[in-house]
Specification:
The chain is mostly helical. The chain is 42% helix and 7% strand. The protein is built from nine helices and four strands, in the order H-E-E-H-E-E-H-H-H-H-H-H-H. Strand 3 and strand 4 form a beta hairpin. The radius of gyration is 33 Å and the shape is flat.
């Protein structure tokens, strides 16, 4: 059932508007082959005659179903001749063309920047300044939990409105309500739909299909913060930033109701922070 956000009522004298949101409860390149390995006719000087043994070409290996390179582009075929024998005996060697997986562009030619001066390093590594934190953990949970509920409802309505498919997973129940999926799961679904080009740009604000994934990822920290209550307190700016990130999700999905609610939630949260800050200032004033 929805929780009563008492601090907002006490600080502002009014309740946050409650719209109808749910309560929480193979290779890309053609095959590559080595140099021609055809074994042609050979003249033996001791016998003074030609060896007219048939040629073995690379096409033979490509046509032979039992060949390990049949239909594969990962090997280069080379013909080798066993030495010390009067008769030429062709053999086959296979060389993998895969690049070592533990090498990247940083193993090649690169540059290193000149380290900063010790004075600069010392200034950077001193104790970090304290950022204002006026909301207690319960108040932060209330704010972030509301954002989580609103965004889940926003994603649910967006997928239902445009009839985007939701893959059925055997270990999860089918989606009937927004709460049937965590916000992280809604983000994953929307990102997959976008990267698979299932989401047309016209259904997004300003056709911002390229910005959709970034906007969704910016809201992921909000769900982590709302779920893990043992986390350290967030500073006031960070709380407001997470509410703002949720507003941007509602905006790009063109959900006016969710966007309006989140905008009011941001304003009331900011007002509560200012009120708490003023109260603390008066309490510690000489």
């Amino acid at each position: 059932m929805p929780r009563d956000f008492t601090p907002f009522t006490q600080a502002t004298g009014g309740a946050i508007p409650q719209p109808e949101f749910p309560s929480r409860g193979g290779s890309a390149f053609p095959p590559t082959y080595g140099p021609s390995s055809t074994v042609g006719r050979t003249f033996h000087s001791a016998q003074g005659e030609w060896d007219t043994s048939p040629s073995i070409s690379q096409d033979y290996y490509m046509r032979e179903p039992d060949s390990p390179i049949h239909g594969s582009s990962e090997f280069v075929v080379e013909s080798s001749i066993q030495r010390g024998s009067d008769k030429r005996q062709p053999g086959t060697r296979y060389h993998s063309q895969r690049k070592p997986s533990n090498r990247d562009e940083f193993d090649g030619p690169h540059q290193l920047l000149q380290p900063p001066s010790p004075r600069t390093v010392a200034a950077q590594e001193r104790e970090l300044p304290h950022l204002p934190t006026n909301l207690d953990v319960q108040e932060q949970d209330e704010v972030l939990g509301r954002v989580n509920d609103i965004l889940s409802k926003c994603a649910f309505d967006f997928v239902a409105k445009y009839q985007f498919p939701i893959p059925i997973e055997p270990d999860k129940r089918q989606v009937r309500t927004p709460a049937d999926r965590e916000w992280t799961e809604w983000v994953y679904l929307l990102k997959r739909l976008a990267t698979k080009r299932r989401v047309p740009a016209r259904v997004l604000y300003n056709n911002q299909i390229k910005q959709l994934v970034t906007v969704l990822e910016n809201s992921l920290e909000m769900r982590h913060a709302a779920k893990h209550q043992s986390r350290p307190l967030k500073d006031d700016r960070n709380v407001l930033q997470l509410v703002s990130a949720g507003t941007q999700v509602a905006k790009i999905l063109k959900d006016a109701t969710a966007m309006e609610y989140l905008d009011k939630l941001y304003a009331r949260t900011e007002l509560l922070i200012q009120d708490r800050k003023e109260r603390n200032r008066r309490a510690f004033a000489p």
